[in-house]
Amino acid sequence: MMTEEPANLAQSAALKLSQMSERTKQLGTAIQDPDRQRRIILVIVCIALLLDNMLYMVIVPIIPDYLEELQGRAQSAVVHTNSTNSTISKTPKVNIDLQIGVLFASKAILQLLINPLSGTFIDRVGYDIPLFIGLSVMFLSTLIFAFAENYATLFLARSMQGLGSAFADTSGIAMIADKYTEEAERSRALGIALAFISFGSLVAPPFGGVLYEFAGKRVPFLVLACICLADAVLCLTVLKPFSNRERENMPVGTPIYKLMIDPYIAVVAGALTTCNIPLAFLEPTIANWMEETMQASQWEIGMTWLPAFFPHVLGVYVTVKLAAKYPHLQWFYGAIGMVFIGASSCTVPACKNFGELMIPLCGICFGIALVDTALLPTLGFLVDVRHVSVYGSVYAIADISYCVAYALGPVVAGQIVHDLGFVQLNLGMGLANVLYAPALLLLKNVSQLKPSFSERNMLLEDGTTGLYDTIKMEEREKKRKGLCTTIDENGIDTFAQRSYSEEESSGGEYA
């Protein structure tokens, strides 16, 4: 009996190991399925964007109080060591405000500087390695935030987050555009990503404030660090960034400086910057204005932006649905969004209480959802029809557009309020959005740039009639728009104008 029990245990252990091995194989097979892999990639990217925006906004209720506590400790130490100095006074509040503004802006400024380099790097090596690098850097910056005990360390952590975001955000959005090649699918996938961005930005202040008050400074950052580590492990497991050899055959993307001088891309970038200015400028200034004009409590200030998440998701949903039915009107949806933002921004100073303030803030976020959801897929489409279908640099330009607004916001907005007033700030932002909306008319004819017969459509419709077509079909399934097309002076794909017989004649050479 004694010898049978170890034998039974060994058999059961071997059976469980074989079952685990079989399940691992099944999981690996499931991951290789293109549709499931695209969904997993979308989940990885959405978590990365959620984390980045939560880390960006979670410090809003934490840092002001924490910096005051640090200064209180420093003053106590000075008083303790030099008790004979009777001229010691409390550090002026303006110094704390300046520190907060610089700390908030440091992330966007470094991200702004790194993005041109990260976009080119992404175009060279693919999307998976930069995504993993970005997640790793964000994980380290979050840990530093958790254990920082002075302003210099907080500044280092904030700057590191900008470095990680320059890689993770750009490569994540570019990967979605690369995997979802159909316009309707691309709009839907980017809309989901934007919903996670808004959720992270709007839920982070209440999340950080509650955990900071009841559990201490480190807990919110440690929670975000754990989620970031899990997402990095998922990225390493599913995408296998360091074992992928397809990047050796990637087409050479258009340089970022050439994309920047493309008039259509420049118009889109300007719209993305302008529409995000109200949000970027209000976040550091609205709390003081609420305290002064409506004597708002701390919980009201913390909950100011949270209801705006729902109209933002509604705006994403509406734009995705409309774009699926009327894709040629993307410019119009963006223009309507900018008018919404402008009108809502102008009505913010007229609000007298917390309930009234929710309405224009919801309008601003609804308008931003319209602009972002309409114009981000347009960037991918412009690259497809006017350049090479490699998306790192073009979405680095989009990230630069956001960073311009968020780099200026914490530094410039407070000075504008001090010199001109809160009312003039909002009127100026609203007027800028309304005046920029007509510029999107320049995108009216973008949909006509779409080639009538692309190589991909021809192969799908006519079937694989030769070795050349078969190889090309397999490459298209693997790389999703991996071939470069030639663009004529009118922006039309001339590859589709070549005769099918010419392709057949070149099949022998290719073989």
Give an overview of the whole structure.
The chain is 76% helix and 0% strand. By secondary structure, it is mostly helical. It folds into 2 domains: 35-66 and 95-240 and 253-449, MFS general substrate transporter like domains (Growth Hormone, Chain: A, Up-down Bundle), CATH 1.20.1250; 455-504, no CATH class. Helix 10 runs antiparallel to helix 17 (422-436). The termini are far apart. Residues 86-94, 451-472 and 481-511 have low confidence and may be disordered. Belongs to the major facilitator superfamily. Vesicular transporter family. Keywords: Glycoprotein, Membrane, Neurotransmitter transport, Transmembrane, Transmembrane helix, Transport.
CATH class of the largest domain: Mainly Alpha
Structural class: mainly alpha
**CATH fold-type name of the largest domain:** Growth Hormone, Chain: A
Largest sheet: none
What general outline do the C-alpha atoms trace? globular
- Taken together, the total number of domains comes to 2
Put simply, the count of helices is: 21
- What's the CATH architecture name of the largest domain? Up-down Bundle
Oligomer kind: single chain
Outline the low-pLDDT stretches: 86-94, 451-472, 481-511
Distance between the termini: 68 Å
What are the salient characteristics of this protein?
511 residues, mainly alpha, Growth Hormone, Chain: A, globular, disordered C terminus
